[in-house]
Amino acid sequence: MVQVLSSRVLVRPADPERSRKFYGEALGLAVYREFGTGPERGTVYFLGGGFLEVSGRATSTPTPTVQLWLQVADAAAAHEELVERGVAVLRPPVREPWGLIEMWIADPDGHKVVIVEIPADHPLRYRP
How far apart are CA 74 and CA 57, in angstroms? Predict the structure, then answer.
């Protein structure tokens, strides 16, 4: 078995500066570290228990089979804040049949991002 010590999701944007504005300003993710210089620098953001690295440049469109899942305390408040920041919401918060409240947005390259609230009565909130 491989012992994983750390992990991160890598995003290769078509326009790194545009993506840094989206993740850093529109979503308000805190910067963990940056490397390199100028517009081509890499930026790593905190994602709760993980990290998101925005670096390099994409030469093709994103795959729909990879999506980002971000848990928040209050999806309705996140929706309001993101709309105020000009983020296009693909689908507002909806309680799904499986009990989670989900809202969908996309980053500037079209990577799908699901914003998830786990309600107080959901089984993920407690362990028997």
Answer: 33
Q: pLDDT (tens digit, 9 = 90+) per residue, 39-66?
A: 889 999 999 889 999 999 998 888 888 8
Alpha-carbon span 95 to 101, nearest angstrom: 4
CA–CA dist 75, 103 (Å, integer): 7
Round to whole Å and give the CA distance between 9 and 55: 11
